[in-house]
Write a structure and sequence with these properties.
Elements (H helix, E strand, L loop, with lengths): L17 H13 L5 E8 L5 E8 L6 H19 L4 E5 L2 H10 L7 H12 L4 E5 L21 E7 L3 E8 L2 E9 L9 H15 L7 E6 L2 E3 L2 E4 L9 H8 L2 H9 L5 E5 H13 L4 E6 L3 E6 L41 H11 L8 H13 L3 H21 L7 E5 L6 H17 L1 H6 L1 E3 L3 H13 L8
Parallel strand pairs: 3-4, 5-8, 8-11, 12-14, 14-15
Antiparallel strand pairs: 1-2, 1-3, 5-6, 6-7, 9-10, 12-13
Length: about 475
């Protein structure tokens, strides 16, 4: 298909925006008299179901490859944005079989088959061909979470380079601290456990009592259990991961603060919740660009949903031979664009020669160059902003977005505004309705200082006596 973006990323000319590829595909479908209906559902063992009904090209000749690409990329996005372990395909058994081969132990999406399926939801991904009448209905209830400000609370956030913690009394931060650490490739989980306990104790020293604890971290957490998290990537022993890492937060709560309500969720969710609370608005998509891309969502009713929103692994670039994520092995996913990995990928194209310098240090050097007016650095941020504008339009096909908050180390300094300006330019030229609808912003000083801590601390409710 011939895709011609109105804005070309200055350092990434081969970028093929998913949203434009899909639009071109749908135009071909509209012109195809043999187009057919296809229904896709992603389900979990607890009965949660996310559903998408689409039209596909007549499944013959060159259309076969186009249909497979369209549906596979859509399924991939649903798995990482919404989450589940059973994929139902209704309307084309051949596509269901092809997807089953891809999402298998020997397929191209082995990582997803294992991590999303078994790792998060208790069953390796299974693709089922069903009839149009058998496809499950949407079933994804959202529940209120957070906004509890009463009592003496601890809020924490665990990042890839530091761990933050705050003591909060009736919604007011009375103490906060930020401690550097390096959990990324630690092979002994006692490193993370001791660090978490240390932060909690530092905050507890400033409270008369600890009535509730809420926290956030990159990854997927279900019922306070670690399902997938970059903080624990260094722990390769599956038995150790299952026995020590998965229940770590429950174990810490039981051993150190028995009976105290405790809740930990994805840091992107807390970013969105913090924005919703601070700005007094809903339909908030929060995107934290740091070690990875962390995303969270507060729906139009003000609730944090059951979606997992791990958009770091959701595809945004449909070019053949696009940038490959070294963890999942897939091409064109958000992690290669909207975090420090994206900066490091673009740095050589901009003319920087950092050699084997670690990614966080490369980001610091690019930020210094940006502050000094270096056009090479500006081009990196312009490129990220352009790609992000197209990604926002793609995200908007799955989320109703009124406010989009970007934060994280990559957005610090002048580069953050350059990225926002670049994204807005794309929306204004390509998607004017979205440009009117979506307010792209960064956290104000109040949210930067204390918003994340207060939002995290507000997660658990305190039982009434």
């Amino acid at each position: 298909m011939n895709i011609e973006p109105k804005v070309t990323p200055v350092l990434d000319e081969g970028f093929v925006p998913a949203v434009l590829w899909n639009a071109a595909y749908r135009e071909q479908v509209a012109a195809d008299a043999g187009a057919t209906e296809l229904k896709i559902a992603v389900g979990r063992l607890d009965g949660t179901v996310f559903r998408k009904d689409v039209q596909i090209l007549s499944h013959e000749g060159e259309n076969v490859a186009l249909n497979l690409k369209y549906v596979e990329r859509l399924v991939k996005f649903m798995l990482w944005a919404q989450g589940g372990c059973t994929v139902y395909i209704a309307g084309n058994d051949d596509l269901a079989k092809a997807l089953g081969d891809i999402y298998s132990e020997t397929g191209a999406r082995k990582f997803d088959w294992d991590i999303v399926g078994k790792g998060m939801f208790g069953q390796f991904i299974e693709v089922k061909a069903v009839s149009l009448d058998e496809i499950p209905e949407q079933n994804s209830p959202a529940a209120p979470l957070g906004r509890n400000l009463d009592g003496n609370r601890i809020g924490f956030d665990l990042g890839g380079s530091d761990r933050k913690c705050a003591a909060v009394v009736n919604g007011e931060v009375v103490f906060s601290t930020e401690i550097p650490w390096d959990p990324y490739f630690q092979e002994d989980p006692s490193y993370q456990r001791e660090g978490i306990i240390d932060s909690l104790k530092k905050a507890a020293e400033h409270l008369p009592s600890v009535d509730a604890i809420g926290g956030s971290s990159a990854g997927v957490y279900i019922n306070n259990e670690v399902r997938i998290a970059s903080l624990f990537r260094g722990i390769k022993d599956k038995k150790v991961f299952e026995e020590v890492v998965v229940p770590m937060f429950k174990d810490i709560a039981g051993a150190e603060y028995p009976g105290v309500p405790f809740e930990v969720i994805n840091d992107g969710e807390v970013t969105a919740l913090a924005g919703s609370i601070t700005m007094d608005t809903n339909s908030v998509l929060g995107v934290a660009m740091g070690t990875s891309e962390a995303v969270g969502y507060v729906d139009p009713q003000g609730n944090v949903t059951t979606q997992i929103n791990e958009l770091a692994f959701a595809p945004v670039d449909y070019r053949d031979g696009g940038p490959v994520d070294e963890w999942s092995g897939d091409e064109g996913c958000g992690v290669q664009f909207f975090c420090q990995q994206g900066v490091a990928r673009l740095a050589p194209k901009a003319g920087f020669d950092f050699g084997d310098m670690p990614f966080p240090e490369q980001l610091v050097e690019v930020q210094k160059a940006m502050a000094e007016g270096d056009e090479r650095a500006r081009k990196i941020y312009e490129t990220i902003g352009t790609c992000f504008g197209y990604a926002i339009a793609h995200y908007a096909e799955f989320y109703h977005i009124g406010t989009l908050i970007i934060m994280g180390r990559v957005t610090s300094g002048e580069g953050g505004q350059v990225m926002i300006d670049g994204a807005k330019k794309v929306l204004e030229l390509e998607f004017p309705e979205l440009a009117e609808q979506i307010n792209i912003t960064q956290p104000d000083e109040k949210m930067k200082r204390h918003g994340q801590a207060v939002a995290a601390a507000s997660l658990p409710s305190i039982p009434k006596a």
